[in-house]
Amino acid sequence: MIPSIQKQGTSTAGLLAYLFGAGRSEEHVDPHLVASFDGLAPDPGRDPGATEEDLQQLLDEPLHLLPAGSRPDKHVWHASVRSAPGDRTLTDDEWADIARRVIAATGIDPGDGAGCRWAAVRHADDHIHLIATLVREDGRKPDHHRSGQRAQAECRRIEADYDLYRVAPGDGTAAKRPTSAERHKAQSRGRDRTAREELRESVRQAAAGTASETEFFDRLASAGLLVRRRPAPSGDTLGYTVALPGDRNKEGAPVYYSGSKLAPDLSLPRIRERWTGSPTQPTPAQASRPAAARRHATGAVWQAVLLIDHGDDGTAAAQIAAASEVLDALVETSPARTRHQLRQAATAFERAARSHVRAERGHDRALRQAARNLIHGGPALGRGEDGATAAMLIDMAFFLATAAANWHARKNHAQQAVAALQAAEHLRAAYRTAAAQPMAVLQQRGRHIAQPLQRQHTAALRHAIPDLAEQILAEPGWPALAATLADAQAAGHSPVDLLTEATQRRELGSATSISDVLVWRLRRLAQLPADPAAARPQAVRAHKVPAPPSTTQTAIKAAGDNARRR
User: Fold this and answer.
1) Can you tell me the distance from the alpha carbon of 357 to that of 313, in angstroms, rounded to the nearest whole number?
2) How far is residue 116's CA from residue 108's CA, in Å, rounded to a whole number?
3) What is the pLDDT of residues 348-401, one digit of tens each?
4) What topology is assigned to 2-162 in CATH?
5) Which letter does DSSP use for residue 27 in this model?
């Protein structure tokens, strides 16, 4: 259940006209009162003898207790309370009880007999609107400081009492939600997202991997946004606002949003922290192509996973914040077939990237450089080495999102943990799309490996990770892993050593397919081409294949110990 406290207004009559009207898109159905301060307020929705003016005069009557010159200009308090999708439809009596509880919790009418006058209007199944006059019956102002936090806390109790969907408690670091007016405006124009949401994504992507203020503002302009800078007397830039070219107000002027109104970490001072704390360098030549940039980013993400698991809080927070930049860069440079799921992942993870734990900038330099390399490497086509390295990176990003969710859960960051898990699910879906073709090629090759070689790879697997070997051998992806082990062995690597290294430092339990995960870890560790079509086919006759290194009982036990420690 989500309460939303709106800006204070000046006209009770204007708000009532909206609440009892048809709505901007005629979405209001059967508007009527469900509760009021005394239970006797006139209902212009269902009482033919009552008017909106009658209700307005009743609500505003306490204003006349004050001299005309001391009456507050913005005396109209407005809030909405909305149930979650999937919740049962509440009755009017239930909504009336919820209205009274929220009104009491916010301090509008605390139950002392002299609170503000208020009314609750329902015009849809899933929400009510609360309207109040901000002058108490005794002429004093109400104590409604921090009414938003108070309403949130009461809604958590209401969810438990009514057995409704439990919304994770917030901590004040979330981005500002679009207003009802912004949502209706987007709907009337046939847009899936509000201007605020579109701008938030565009600014995030423009900031990903940037090295300077000049580059950031150039990227904003290149994205087609209208940009205004707020200069200081010295000429330095204090802040900025952005607008979509087609988003206009009633006067035809662009509707601008400051960075801080899009998200707390998109204000110019907060973005500057990235440039000073974790400066990036020009993209090196070896990472200037899409596939190379993705391979480099995979290594950086792997190190970030380990730092989240084993680093201090400031280091972990920095890795999670910078990982959001990598996801934004990945969205901007990915082919259309994976872009939707990656965009969903980046949008969800944006919430996971902010908490009250201060990020220690400097520890995230590798991830910020990876984001920069992805941008400068350019769009990937989704085929060949580009497509395979994309699958490799997305697979590793899934583990990073999972690690972030676990870290936030340990810190009792409920909303961030949920957001990270949502991002992980979208990354899982994007991986399936990106990996389908290269994994199919590897599986086909693995099925045609000669039996003696297959037995050797099976023995290597059982030596290296005995606890999981039988599970992996039963997976559909085992032939692809066997083909990768053959490639690694032909390149001069020990399959046992590679498998041990790939499993000893990070768990595999959250993977849907352990064999898939090991394919990409081994191909990265052994520096094999990510695209299996680019790898040299291996010999299939048993006598041409070198035997695996001899393994003593001590080595077998050590491998088992390593497997149990991952």
Assistant:
1) 7
2) 6
3) 999 999 999 999 988 899 999 999 999 999 888 878 898 899 999 999 999 999
4) BirA Bifunctional Protein; domain 2 (3.30.930)
5) -
**Full strand arrangement of the beta sheet holding 257-258:** 226-231, 237-243, 257-258
Question: Do 479 and 440 form a contact (C-beta atoms < 8 A)?
Answer: no
Q: Which residue do the tokens 């009770």 mark?
A: 12
Query: What is the 8-class DSSP label of residue 62?
Result: G
- pLDDT (tens digit per residue) in 262-310: 999 999 999 999 998 888 888 777 667 899 999 999 999 999 999 999 9
Measured over the CA atoms of residue 456, residue 459, residue 464 and residue 469, the dihedral's sign is positive
Torsion of the alpha carbons at 213, 216, 219 and 224, rounded to the nearest 10: -90
pLDDT tens, residue by residue, 101-126: 999 999 999 999 999 999 999 998 99
Closest CA to 138 of 166, 167, 153, 116: 116
Dihedral (CA of 275, 276, 278, 279) sign: positive
Q: Could you give the CA distance from residue 530 to residue 333 in angstroms, rounded to a whole number?
A: 18
Closest CA to 38 of 126, 120, 102, 144: 120
Question: 80 pairs with which residues across the strands?
Answer: 4, 129
Query: What are the sequence ranges of the domains in the chain?
Result: 2-162, 180-266, 285-431, 448-565
d(CA 323, CA 123): 42
Strand positions, DSSP E, 274-397: none
With beta carbons less than 8 A apart as the criterion, state whether 494 and 526 touch.
no
Q: Give yes or no for a contact between 464 and 500, defined as CB atoms under 8 angstroms apart.
A: yes
Which residues, other chains included, contact 120 with Cβ-Cβ below 8 Å and sequence gap of 6+?
33, 34, 35, 36, 95, 96, 99, 103, 128, 129, 130, 131
Half-sphere exposure of 300 (CA within 13 A, CB side): 26
C-alpha 545/C-alpha 349 separation (Å) is 46
Burial class (CB in 10 A: 0-12, 13-18, 19+), 409: middle
State the residue for tokens 């204000």. Answer: 267
Cα 276 to Cα 131, 231, 297, 362, 479, distances in angstroms: 47, 20, 21, 9, 48
Going across the sheet that includes 2-5, the strands are 2-5, 76-82, 127-136, 116-124, 32-36
Distance CA 480, CA 545 (A): 18
Q: For the segment 432-466, what is each residue's pLDDT rounded down to a tens digit?
A: 999 999 999 999 999 999 999 999 999 999 999 99
* Among 174, 143, 134, 111, residue whose Cα is nearest residue 6: 134
How many residues can be counted in the chain?
566
Contacts of 93 (CB under 8 A, 6+ apart): 34
